[in-house]
Write a structure and sequence with these properties.
Layout: E1 5-12, H1 17-30, E2 34-40, E3 49-57, E4 70-75, H2 78-84, E5 88-97, H3 104-107, H4 117-122, E6 128-130, H5 132-139, H6 145-156, H7 164-171, H8 174-189
Parallel strand pairs: 1-4, 4-5, 5-6
Antiparallel strand pairs: 1-3, 2-3
Length: 192
Amino acid sequence: MSNVKNILLVGVGGQGIILASKILSNGLINSGYDVKMSEVHGMAQRGGSVTTQIRYGEKVYSPIIGKGQADIIVAFEQMEAERWIDYLKPDGKLVISDYKIPSVPVLIGDVDYPNTILEDLQERSKPTVIKAAKLAKELGNIRTQNIIMLGALTKAIGLENINWNDIIKSMIKDKYADINIKAFTMGKELID
């Protein structure tokens, strides 16, 4: 099963992680891959943790990614990156949005949001940090940060040969398709 790739998307409810995962999965299926996807919503509508695990290859038997097995983790929020870092392979890639969403304990003042997350992660991996929220605002719609991260993911893992524009157009309302295609292209351009 060495041809199977493991992708873990992590973040907080309301960030569009499920939509990004569905676009990714559809693109992979349309390209002939066997794809398995698992999603965990948690308290998604209340800002809780959301994760999706996507495995693709010639033949995939399970959607579950174990610790130390993710080829790439894409974190839509900093604290979630730190929470899931143990799932990354030693040579895996980590793409992180610099965005911070305070959890309930932070909001009520019980704890402070950790200020050293990105530095801590650099000790365990070589993360690519993206200012997705800032870029999405500059693009004109903060809600496109998920598609910016998706674009970065596809380039980071080598999936540029899929016609992502058509997949995005088929899954997003017409009036938002163009801005999301721009966001996707912007995300790809952020990865070397």
